[in-house]
Design brief:
With about 325 residues, this protein is of the alpha/beta class. It has helices at about 15-20, 35-45, 55-65, 75-85, 100-115, 130-135, 160-180, 285-300, 305-325; strands spanning about 5-10, 30-35, 50-55, 65-70, 90-95, 120, 145-155, 180-195, 195-205, 210-215, 225-230, 235-240, 245-250, 270, 325. It folds into two domains: about 5-120 and about 285-305, 3-Layer(aba) Sandwich (Rossmann fold), CATH 3.40.50; about 130-285, Dihydrodipicolinate Reductase, domain 2 (2-Layer Sandwich). A hairpin with a 4-residue loop joins strand 9 (about 195-205) and strand 10 (about 210-215). It is globular.
Length: about 325
């Protein structure tokens, strides 16, 4: 099909290192990039982007892109997302795009008005391990998802607020995606200093599922950062560091001396990324997110997740900030 016109607002490392690589196989043409000249020049040289603008509003007016990658190193993502929607563009933007529920509802209303959509960067929704886990949870054999538990860590952040809205945002969205809407029951936190804190969060869904998230920004990034487990009826699925998935199922009884074979329908199923593949494909899900937003823009429909989904995550982030009880 005819390539869609794409524009870029912001020149963060994620744009340069990941996103521009991931759009190579997609039917898009990078027409323009907006940012400071010293930040955008290396992107323009490497990826053969079109024009350079210092003002994204001018770029939107003159170029009229159909898809925008919105990843400013600093600045107001919310206002830029609004401008993109009004200009008729679909947007893939840094999460959570806006700073509260009121802004989220404003973007949702704009989506309905313009017929365009904002997809926040909740890339776990398109990450292979999480997509496999969601398919497993939907199987009748799995039963109702009764428990969600997660450990999700990071190194020091610039501030506690930045950690809640940037770091927590990913794992809260993953929880909602896997087990449905949850409400916060209780939040405990400890604070070591301005850049280090830890949280225990407890959740409950309308269906009766319970969730527990332990997260913080007190460790080095080399520490194993992420483990998610969802428990169903006599079985569970575990995701570790986005790189592997294990589906534990009821195993047959085994006795000494018997013939040892893997049980069809029992024993554990495991998936790990095959690093021998000669491909740009990764386990992070960026490829899937970008394919999703480009397909939606080409067909004029909604992507599989957008600001309606982000609003649920934002509500819980606001609750965490309001309800967290300080200890120590």
């Amino acid at each position: 099909m005819q390539p869609l016109k794409l524009a870029v607002i912001g020149c963060s490392f994620l744009v340069y290192d990941m996103l521009m690589e991931c759009i190579k196989p997609l039917p898009v043409e990078c027409a323009a990039i907006c940012g400071a000249p010293e930040e955008t020049e290396k992107i323009r040289r490497r990826y053969n982007c079109g024009k350079h603008y210092g003002d994204y509003r001018e770029m939107l007016e003159k170029e009229r892109p159909r898809v925008v990658l919105l990843f400013p190193a600093s600045g107001d993502t919310f206002e830029a997302a609004k401008a993109c929607l009004k200009a008729g563009a679909y947007v893939f933007a840094e999460r959570p795009v806006c700073g509260g529920s009121a802004q989220a509802q404003e973007l949702i209303a704009l989506q309905k008005e313009t017929g365009c959509y904002v997809m926040p960067r909740y890339n776990r929704r398109c990450a292979p391990a999480y997509m496999m886990a969601k398919e497993i949870i939907a199987r009748p054999e799995f039963g109702r998802a009764d428990m969600f538990t997660a450990n999700y860590y990071a190194g020091p952040y610039a501030s506690e607020k930045a950690m809640v809205w940037s770091h927590f945002s990913h794992i809260i969205d993953a929880m909602i995606s896997l087990v449905g809407d949850m409400r916060l029951l209780h939040a405990d936190k400890i604070v070591r200093d301005e850049q280090r804190a830890g949280y225990n969060l407890s959740f409950l869904s309308e269906s009766g599922a319970i969730g527990m998230v332990q997260s913080g920004f007190m460790l080095c990034y080399e520490y194993p950062m992420e483990r998610v487990e969802v428990t169903g009826d006599g079985r569970c699925v575990i995701i570790e560091n986005m790189r592997s998935l294990t589906y534990h199922r009821p195993a047959p009884e085994r006795k000494y001396g018997g013939k040892m074979i893997l049980a069809d329908g029992g024993d554990a199923l495991c998936w790990m990324q095959n690093y021998g593949q000669m491909t740009l494909f990764s386990y992070y899900g960026f490829e899937g997110c970008l394919e999703e937003i480009v397909d939606a823009a080409a067909n004029g429909g909604p992507p599989s997740f957008h600001m309606d989904d982000a609003a649920r995550t934002i509500r819980l982030l606001e609750d965490i900030e309001r309800k967290a009880v300080l200890h120590g």
